[in-house]
Amino acid sequence: MRIGLVGVGRIGAFHAATLKGLPAVDQVVVADADASRAELVAKDLGLEYAPDVDALLASGLDGFVIAAATSAHADLIAAGVAARIPTFCEKPVAIDLADTLRVVELVEGSDVPVHIGFQRRFDAGYQTAAAAVRSGELGFVHHIRANTNDAFPPAQEYIPTSGGFFRDCTVHDFDIIRYVTGREVVSVFATGANRGERFFGEYGDVDAAAALLTLDDNTFVSVSGTRYNAAGHDVRMELLGSLGSIAVGLDEHTALRSAEAGVTFPGGQPHTTFMDRFRPAYVAELTAFTEVVAGTREVPCTVRDAYQAFRIADACELSRRENRLVQLGRV
């Protein structure tokens, strides 16, 4: 199959290289707002390139992958749907909740499959945890702890268009909580702080945050994260049940050290980036998209799923700003 990709920044170039290596993909064509950058990446990876998005969509594609800037996602999804090309888009669907809902209505009013990129759904650990919850082997789950700790902060110019900490970073936790538990969030209470570079605060953002979520079965979920975890990129989830407990991301690469005498675990090299931590999941995610393109698989993460995760992120941001409990039914 012939796959087109728009946006060849860090994650876009990574996706292009991944797509090239998939057995189902015969050709990859790339485009970018900066045509010269697309040409350079195409040359480096041995791919084709198109001078712009219109040319890309007109080049006989079987599938369309969006890895461009967040502000372009909604229009690019609409373009993929208009061209009747199965589409994959990195999260988020749009820059705000209202535009996200408009995209949901557009996609659900068509028969063009649109797959949103929440790669944790394709991580083996999270899939094992989801199976443990669904089988009942944990009993009833009473508490969940989830964290996303980046090893180093993004560049200053990224922050104004990021959507803020909850929408950019912990939105992955919100999506995977829904996926693993099969439950919905009914209320949130969130807080945050800026203890690192001043530019986070200058843009109204934070570099560390925490939230307490209550699910519709009264499971309590604590979510935390930071832009400053020099020990390494640390993404984990712990599920505590009445019959057993399970942890995702607790292995030799976990960016922690024990304070107990004689304990050497974990002893491996910590991950430094999300691409390092989730490399196999990204391969599985894009493999799933080729199956969507081929018509052999239903969309595994829909625009509606992305909308629900964004609602939780919006509720957390509202809670942080107003220092109060927020009911999801009012978002």
From TrEMBL:
Keywords: Oxidoreductase. Residues 1-118 form the Gfo/Idh/MocA-like oxidoreductase N-terminal domain. It comes from the Bacteria. InterPro entries: Gfo/Idh/MocA-like_OxRdtase_N, GFO_IDH_MocA-like_dom, NAD(P)-bd_dom_sf. Gene3D superfamilies: Dihydrodipicolinate Reductase, domain 2 (3.30.360.10), NAD(P)-binding Rossmann-like Domain (3.40.50.720). One of its GO terms (molecular function) is oxidoreductase activity. Residues 126-246 form the GFO/IDH/MocA-like oxidoreductase domain. Belongs to the Gfo/Idh/MocA family. This is Myo-inositol 2-dehydrogenase/D-chiro-inositol 1-dehydrogenase. It comes from Kribbella steppae.
